[in-house]
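Before relying on records like the one below, remember that each one covers exactly one chain. Contacts with other chains, cofactors or solvent are not represented anywhere in the record.
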Amino acid sequence: PEGFAVTYFPSAVSEHEAARVRVGLGDEAADLEIVLVRTRTFRITGSLTDSSGAPVTRANVSLLRVHGSGYTFGAGVSMSGDGLFSINNVIAGNYLLSVRPTRDPDAPPDTIRRREFALVPLSVDADVQDLVVTTQPGTTITGRVSFAEGTPPALPEMTVFAQTSDRLPSVGSTPQSTVGADLRFTLTDLFGHYSVRPAGLPHGYTLKAVLLGGTDITSTDVEFKPEHNGQLVVVLTSRTSVIEGAITDASGQPASEVSIVLLPEDKSSWSWGNMRTRVTFGSDGRYRLEGILPGRYYIVAVPRDVARPSRADGLAVFEPFLKDAVTVVLNEDETRTVDLRAVKD
């Protein structure tokens, strides 16, 4: 059968192929006509079971269409009470079927239920029938926080959280844990690939490295396994640097409606999860970036709306601006003044 695909302006079946629409402050964008794409569609049917073989009757199920390194909404999922599901009007392409647990409203509040997840890749060019999806429990990992220059005398309430890979969708809430007085933490319900980040750090401190069994995974998405328990170390440092300066427009006046983008010089490490990547807004023609680790960087001031690319775009959207970027080499405990001229898109 044929049907109408999810369609983006003006007549595209993926966010990656869609045309952008710019709307300024107080503006209206009128006469935007979207022509729905009519195409061959397929149907996916199957069943959900948990790791014990029992039907999954309550879950959040999503079909996400994969585009390069990103993904967008694919199609709606219908479920029945016996674990069966169906998905209609699916166009040809690559997808991820995401299954996330949901709480049973009829269960007592103090009921402890093991959370299970699934993330299944699918390539659709025909009907998919009797697909069996089995959920699996997440992993629990303990770790500790370490200070490179010695533990400060007074500590705020810190947390550690697991950040989902920007290449894959989240299958649950963001796992996070409060850091105890012994500087230890526990992350639960880890399913998929994550990078680990701290929050609520003492003033003047930033993340130096995340180590897993002695291996630096700071800028790496890791699928945590039970054997990783106790091997995770989050290292903090007070030896950080600052970049600050003025932002002007083409006429030399203080620039507004711009964002400051800081990227590592090594393009192979570009990702939203990389701690060396920063995007911040300039204010009244000035900017200031604190807690920067030593290294080589590009820094550039771009139009504010450009600094909000989608997951499908990734950081490659900034590459055309590198010809106007300033290269900065930072050492430890250094404050650098770098004035920027805002570039046009």
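The mean pLDDT is 87.
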